[in-house]
Amino acid sequence: MAALGALHLTKNTGAKHTATVIFFHGSGASGDHMKEWVNLMAKNFSFPHIKILYPTAPLQPYTPAGGLMSNVWFDRVDIDKKAPEIIKSLNSIEGDIKMLIKKENEIGISNNRIIVGGFSMGGALALHTAYRWESNLAGVFAFSSFLNDNSSVYEELKKSNKNVPLLQIHGNADDLVDISWGQATFNELKALGVQGEFYVMERLGHSINKRGLHIIKDWIEKLLPDV
């Protein structure tokens, strides 16, 4: 498995760092691109006590792109909710994500002071992180994201419910990841005991937007107050 790419961050603006948000980019992008995009859409996406990490996915062949090398968290058979997950590819990124979180733990940031989230594929990765690989995270958010039918996330939740709050946001004009895929993901997670909120962004395609990022920021501040 290729190594993670460059790690970018937005430091906490105050004196104390007491919580961390890990924001995963979508397929073919980078941590630097995600950081720039977020800060372009929502001026000053920062917090006095919260550090934001923007990691970069490994460079690896991506089947939906004809096998071309791309910065992706995992491979897919196809961008289709009905396609099966490639479990081997998903499992190969697990250790890297756990190491990111472990490094935060080692500097005094416990799991209940960490939120994971992302855009598109990055949101799916965040769902696997919160509901399969880690325990007791403070929350998980997913923007324009979906899980495949019969996802291993659902199978894990059938065995042990993880009480991690969920925030999902999706544009109703998304032509890559249809909003129905996002809503089906949310409904399935909710049926398995996940508590969360789903926001529809009117006339938004496969993208983040200012309103959605403000919803995410307010939600982060509610779940990770200064201590």
So how many helices? 6
How many strand units?
9
C-alpha termini separation: 38 Å
| Strand residue content | 15-25%
The helix/strand series, from N terminus to C terminus, equals: EEHEEEHEHEHEHEH
Profile the largest sheet: 7 strands, mixed
Order of neighbouring strands in the sheet with most strands: 1-3-2-6-7-8-9
| Global Rg | 16 Å
Query: Based on helices, strands and strand pairing, what is the structural class?
Result: alpha/beta
Low-confidence stretches: none
Task: Please give a quick description of this structure.
The chain has 227 residues and is of the alpha/beta class. It is 35% helix and 20% strand.
Key phrases:
227 residues, alpha/beta, seven-stranded mixed β-sheet, two-stranded antiparallel ribbon, 9 strands, 20% strand
